[in-house]
Design goal:
The structure holds two protein chains of two kinds. Chain A is an alpha/beta fold. Chain A has eight helices and 18 strands. Chain B is an alpha/beta fold. Chain B has helices at residues 36-51, 70-78, 97-111, 130-138, 192-198, 247-260, and strands at residues 2-6, 9-11, 18-19, 26-27, 32-34, 58-64, 83-87, 115-119, 142-152, 156-163, 166-173, 176-180, 203-206, 225-231, 240-243. In chain B, helix 2 (70-78) packs across helix 5 (192-198). The interface between A and B is large, with 96 and 79 residues.
């Protein structure tokens, strides 16, 4: 029961970075438990070369399943089949929307315990203990499992990927999908909406949230980014992207991008965990918010409690003046 | 058709949340409210019903929780649900996500809904996962974090959501379980009349035994994921806070701070 099975999400010929991190983490933990890290891949005609490339991150075996990718329930079917036939003590996910869905469905299917938003896992007495930050990251819960299989869903970017130069044996696994998992079908996948903006390479990011009040609020962000000039860009939270105020390509957080600029200035962003996971790597975090209790102040280096409509235009002028000096 | 909406009572957003150090469970005393995400699920149900896109006969709010959770059901029916079901049993206390999902699925099984809606996360546990657990027990297809639902011919839905690589559009046959994000709609405020009338709508109290729940699968001691302790996170040095009183002065301080760090 010492082996760990990892779901590796792939899209258009490449693996998801968080999945690769989960494979690396599983390899490290399996070694401590005296077992192996295996990965499972689902898709239409995924090449054995691609599947086998997971060996470079520490997987010793990869199960390649022909089936629909992008929906959770077929993956639950496949993982349940693999775990039932194999010798697995844990299933590990790198986070993201599908990781949460598959992990939860698998817990129901296998009568297994599930822990989510996990930031660290350690082996203790031949078992895994997972750590989950709770209550706005003000405390960390330790979770262990009493079920035959423990399911661990990582928080985004929690697991670091590590190239080992290893190789993996690829086996194809044929799965009898359950009737209900065929009741959902993908119509379009990965649709990009709105303009293409590049935020990942920017040194300065001016990010806007719901506190901007309206789509027009982004003009304040654009003006400030313009004042910084050079390698600066504007980014946004999921809430305002879903509201149609800003293009999806500029979204930071759980279902968006992960950034680590030199300066991250958050305007009208409350700082929900889902946003935090995408930007906490920034070197300097400045937040402007009128709510003194906003969680973002707990992890910003400089916090300004006030009205962004008053502060941003003046700050823009001041930055321009400083630049000109 | 019948829509069941899963709702949950959570500590009010203004209440400082804390953990009971002896059990690792959330201290749920203090002011409580209906989970804000669930109001979006109820609104989604009401819009499906009122638009006539689906022939919805009934919207039923379902919760699991202690006696106080009744108030969440009152709120749910004041927002438009026709009746409500309260699964309450001491044996359920301390259930983890998997056990909670199992227990709720047993209540839903008896209701045989065509659609189960819920909020994508709760304000307290933030687990995102209960919908997927419930769906697997019911053997229904499911999607989470949905931000748009269109009805396609009465028995099929077309749902949109943000996933790892952009927006996905998925067709899903009923019966199904769908959890919704807060971008899906703007929930209505209940009218005074609806609030007054809420207590007159039928509320059925169900025990674990009534629902056919296997007691060995629920409750804190039987849950498969066990809390074994807690610790303090590494302390991050508190940042500097400026209360903006004189904006010119505030901006001067920001610029000086940025300049010190060579960020301008």
């Amino acid at each position: 029961m010492a082996n760990i099975l990892v779901y590796a999400l792939q899209y258009e010929g490449a693996f998801n970075k968080n999945s690769l991190g989960a494979v690396s983490e599983a390899a490290k933990l399996a070694a401590e438990l005296g077992g192996e890290a295996h990965a499972i891949v689902i898709g239409q005609g995924v090449s054995d070369d691609l599947a086998g490339s997971l060996g470079n991150y520490g997987a010793t075996k990869v199960l390649n399943v022909e089936g629909p990718e992008g929906l959770a329930q077929p993956v639950v079917d496949a993982m349940a089949a693999a775990i039932t036939a194999g010798d697995y003590g844990y299933a590990l996910f790198g986070g993201g929307l599908l990781g949460f869905e598959v992990g939860a469905g698998l817990a129901a299917r296998l009568d297994a315990g599930v822990a989510m938003e996990i930031t660290a896992v350690r082996a203790e007495g031949g078992k895994l203990v997972a750590e989950r930050p709770i209550l706005g990251d003000s405390a960390i819960s330790q979770i262990s499992f009493r079920s035959d299989v423990g399911i661990i869903i990582g928080r985004l970017n929690a697991f670091e990927l590590k190239e080992t130069g290893g190789s993996a044996a690829v086996e194809s696994l044929s799965v009898d999908f359950s009737p209900f998992s065929g009741q959902a079908t993908m119509v379009t996948r990965g649709e990009q909406r709105g303009a293409d903006v590049d935020i990942e390479g920017a040194d300065v990011l001016i990010a806007g949230g719901r506190g901007l009040g309206a789509e027009e609020g982004f003009e304040l962000c654009e003006a400030l980014a313009g004042a910084f000039g050079g390698n600066s860009a504007v980014a946004a939270t999921r809430a305002v992207v879903d509201a149609g105020w800003f293009p999806y390509a500029g979204q930071i957080g759980q279902t968006g991008k992960t950034v680590a600029p030199k300066l991250y200035l958050a305007a009208g962003i409350s700082g929900a965990i889902q946003h935090k996971v995408g930007m906490q790597g920034a070197e300097n975090i400045v937040a402007i918010n009128k709510d003194a209790n906003a969680p973002i102040f707990e992890f910003s280096d400089l916090g300004i409690v006030g009205d962004l409509n008053k502060i941003m235009p003046k700050l823009t002028e001041a930055v321009k003046a400083k630049k000109g000096a | 058709m019948k829509i069941c909406v899963l709702v949950k009572e959570v500590p009010d957003a203004a209440v400082q949340k804390k953990i009971d150090p002896s059990t690792g469970r959330m201290d749920r005393s203090g002011e409580k409210n209906l989970n804000p995400y669930d109001t979006h699920a109820i609104e989604a149900a009401m819009q499906l019903k009122e638009s006539g896109a689906m022939a919805v006969d009934e919207v039923v709010a379902v919760t699991m929780g202690p006696d106080s959770a009744e108030r969440a059901l009152h709120k749910a029916v004041s927002l438009g649900a026709d009746r409500s079901i309260h699964l309450a049993d001491d044996a359920l206390a301390g259930s983890d996500v998997a056990a909670t999902g199992y227990a709720l699925s047993k209540v839903l099984e008896k209701e045989a809904p065509d659609l189960v809606l819920l909020g994508q996360q709760s304000d307290d546990g933030e687990c995102y996962t209960i919908g997927a657990v419930v769906a697997d027990h019911l053997k229904f297809p499911s999607l989470t974090q949905v931000i748009k639902i269109d009805v396609d011919g009465g028995t099929k839905l077309r749902a949109e959501r943000q996933a790892e690589y952009g927006y996905d559009t998925v067709e899903i046959n009923l019966p199904a379980v769908i959890s919704v994000g807060d971008a899906i709609n703007e929930p209505r405020y209940p009218s005074l009349k609806a609030i007054m009338g809420a207590k007159k709508k039928p509320l059925e109290k169900v025990s674990a035994g009534d629902a056919g729940i296997d007691a060995s699968k629920v409750g804190g001691d039987n849950s498969a994921a066990q809390w074994t302790g807690s610790s303090e996170p590494p302390k991050k040095e508190a940042g500097r806070i400026i209360e903006d009183e004189d904006t010119a002065e505030t901006v001067e301080q920001i610029v000086a701070w940025l300049d010190e760090r060579k960020l301008i």
